[in-house]
């Protein structure tokens, strides 16, 4: 706990030194950024826009999760499906999130479809790939057990496939979400009139650098909390059955 | 040869009231144009409440045969029926215990046991009772909420047995269930199986390479010879239970089975 805090303190100090030496209105000092930060939190603005952005990511994530799970399992279990969809995954992995954001705004305008689709499109490829690889690690012995007791496809998913996939899913979710955040902010900058990205754009237009920094810091804080707090917590819970080596 | 033929004549079991019949079962694998015959013309029956042992060296196809009976492999010639109905896939009326416990590592002991009746329509309270009573039956009361890595190999195998018993099977298929356990745990579990069988009276097919295990547990023992897997002999074990592990009767059967296995 001590070292990360030391780093953050040093970063703030370094910034302050730089701001004072430059004395440029485009490089606000720590006090200015802090005032702005307090402002957006106190006015409730940060909370309302952050909620909107999170909601959009969640929706896109949900779509991506369902699609990638089906696609990943299909690809992992069927050689032809894998060969057929491989180019799609490859294209999906290489196309920058910026392009998805632009195309979705152009085609679907200011709508929920734009944000959902843009997030889903950038999240699905790494998630599906991760799932397809995870499926290959499903234990054949346990698969026989699910056959012996005639488990339904849903029970097999619940008792065998999902638990096997958990580490792969969490990994895919981590990579996917970090891409999702970037895409949603871009979509909001380009074409939406709410959300963190929209606020960033507004502050940018007003040349309010302290505002841009304040929003960025707030946004990054929430993301860090989600990744390390929520996803880390889920990970600890769903892997509690693991034996931990004592050496 | 005469000797073997004589022994193969066993009074036919009355099948009107159920049991397992295997008729003319053959199986071969094909790989790169080569055909490997694994089982050739296997026929036998297991009466209701009978314990049948199948012994043979590794590679004689005994585990393959068990897979066919379990319904895990439908690619074979011949007919397998249980209680008059043809086996065309797995079913909860056939419980299976493999050499490995095959428990789901992310489920607790009781959740693992409940797997076998997960698809059975039954009030959940009844299911819980069934799971609890079967766990108690195998001596695992108090370990319900443990994960598989927290219990010993013998206990894991007990859990696997409880899972197979919970669906109240009329036929229990045991595929070298104690082969990976230490000698003491093995003997203990063998006696537990007998105790459970006496209270439930289901039929049991026991695949094993352990002659002593077959003699201790089974009513009849089939010896299989390898490549292709064929029935070499069928012997009755007429020793009253509880069976002593040593004694003249057991010795006589042991030497017979050993000669059938080509050991001397």
SSE order and pairing:
The complex is a heterodimer of chains A (247) and B (264).
Chain A: H1 2-22, H2 30-42, H3 45-77, H4 79-94, H5 97-108, H6 112-135, H7 140-148, H8 153-191, H9 196-205, H10 209-238
Helix pairs in contact in A: 2-10, 3-4, 3-6, 3-8, 4-6, 5-6, 5-8, 6-8, 8-9, 8-10, 9-10
Chain B: H1 2-8, E1 20-31, E2 34-46, E3 51-56, H2 62-70, E4 77-82, E5 85-86, E6 94-97, H3 109-114, H4 124-137, H5 153-166, E7 171-175, H6 183-200, E8 203-208, H7 211-217, E9 220-225, E10 230-236, H8 248-260
Parallel strand pairs in B: 3-8, 3-9, 6-7, 7-8
Antiparallel strand pairs in B: 1-2, 1-4, 4-5, 9-10
Helix pairs in contact in B: 4-5, 7-8
Pfam families (chain B): ABC_tran
Protein name (chain B): Sulfonate transport system ATP-binding protein
Enzyme class (chain B): hydrolase
Description:
Chain B: InterPro entries: AAA+_ATPase, ABC_transporter-like_ATP-bd, ABC_transporter-like_CS, ABC_transporter_ATP-bind, P-loop_NTPase. Chain B: Its EC number is 3.6.3.-. Chain B: Keywords: ATP-binding, Hydrolase, Nucleotide-binding, Transport. Chain B: Belongs to the ABC transporter superfamily. The complex is a heterodimer of chains A (about 250) and B (about 260). Chain A starts with a helix and ends in a 9-residue tail after the last helix. With about 250 residues, chain A is mostly helical. Chain A has helices at about 1-20, 30-40, 45-75, 80-95, 95-110, 110-135, 140-150, 155-190, 195-205, 210-240. Chain A is built from 10 helices and no strands. Chain B has a domain at about 15-95 and about 210-264: P-loop containing nucleotide triphosphate hydrolases (Rossmann fold, 3-Layer(aba) Sandwich), CATH 3.40.50.300. Chain B has helices spanning about 1-10, 60-70, 110-115, 125-135, 155-165, 185-200, 210-215, 250-260; strands at about 20-30, 35-45, 50-55, 75-80, 85, 95, 170-175, 205-210, 220-225, 230-235. In chain B, the strands form 2 sheets. In chain B, strands 6-7-8-3-9-10 form a 6-stranded mixed beta sheet, sandwiched between helices. A 4-stranded antiparallel beta sheet of chain B has the order 2-1-4-5, with helices on one face. In chain B, a hairpin with a 4-residue loop joins β9 (about 220-225) and β10. The interface of A and B includes residues 151, 155, 160 and 242 of A.
């Amino acid at each position: 706990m001590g070292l990360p805090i030391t780093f953050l303190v040093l970063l703030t100090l370094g910034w302050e030194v730089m701001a004072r030496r430059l004395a440029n209105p485009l490089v606000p000092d720590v006090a200015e950024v802090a005032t702005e930060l307090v402002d957006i939190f106190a006015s409730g603005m940060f909370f309302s826009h952050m909620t909107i952005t999170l909601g959009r990511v969640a929706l896109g994530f949900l779509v991506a999760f369902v699609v990638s799970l089906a696609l990943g399992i299909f690809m992992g279990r069927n050689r032809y499906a894998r060969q057929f969809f491989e180019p799609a995954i490859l294209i999906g992995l290489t196309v920058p999130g910026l392009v998805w954001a632009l195309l979705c705004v152009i085609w679907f305008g200011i709508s929920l479809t734009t944000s959902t689709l843009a997030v889903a499109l950038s999240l699905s490829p790494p998630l599906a790939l991760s799932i397809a690889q995870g499926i290959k690690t499903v234990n054949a012995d346990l698969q026989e057990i699910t056959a012996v007791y005639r488990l339904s496809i849903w029970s097999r998913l619940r008792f065998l496939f999902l638990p096997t996939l958990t580490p792969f899913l969490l990994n895919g979710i981590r990579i996917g979400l970090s891409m999702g955040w970037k895409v949603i902010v871009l979509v909001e900058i380009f074409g939406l009139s709410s959300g963190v990205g929209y606020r960033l754009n507004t502050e940018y237009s007003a040349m309010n650098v302290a505002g841009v920094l304040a929003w960025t810091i707030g946004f990054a804080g929430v993301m860090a909390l989600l990744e390390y707090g929520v996803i880390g917590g889920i990970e600890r819970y769903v892997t509690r059955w693991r034996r931990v080596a004592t050496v | 040869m005469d000797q073997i033929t004589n022994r193969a004549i066993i009074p036919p079991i009355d099948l009107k009231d159920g049991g397992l019949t295997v008729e003319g079962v053959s199986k071969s694998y094909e790989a790169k144009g080569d055909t490997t015959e694994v089982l050739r013309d296997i026929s036998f029956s297991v009466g209701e409440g009978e314990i049948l042992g199948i012994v043979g060296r590794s590679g004689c196809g005994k585990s393959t045969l068990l897979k066919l009976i379990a319904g895990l492999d439908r690619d074979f010639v011949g007919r397998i029926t249980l209680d008059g109905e043809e086996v065309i896939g797995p079913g909860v009326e056939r419980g299976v215990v493999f050499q490995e416990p095959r428990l789901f590592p992310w489920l607790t002991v009781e959740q693992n046991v409940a797997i076998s009746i997960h698809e059975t329509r039954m009030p959940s309270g009844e299911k819980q009772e069934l799971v609890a009573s079967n766990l108690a039956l195998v001596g695992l009361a108090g370990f319900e909420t443990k994960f598989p890595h927290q219990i010993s190999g013998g206990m894991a195998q007990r859990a696997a047995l409880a899972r197979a018993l919970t669906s109240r099977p009329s036929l229990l298929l045991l595929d070298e269930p104690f082969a990976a356990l230490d000698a003491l745990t093995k003997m203990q579990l063998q006696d537990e199986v007998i105790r459970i069988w006496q209270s439930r009276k289901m039929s049991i097919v026991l695949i094993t390479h352990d002659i002593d295990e077959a003699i201790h547990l089974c009513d009849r023992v089939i010896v299989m010879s390898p490549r292709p897997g064929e029935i070499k002999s069928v012997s009755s074990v007429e020793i009253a239970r509880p069976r002593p592990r040593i004694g003249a009767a057991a010795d006589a059967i042991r030497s017979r089975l050993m000669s059938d296995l080509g050991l001397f």
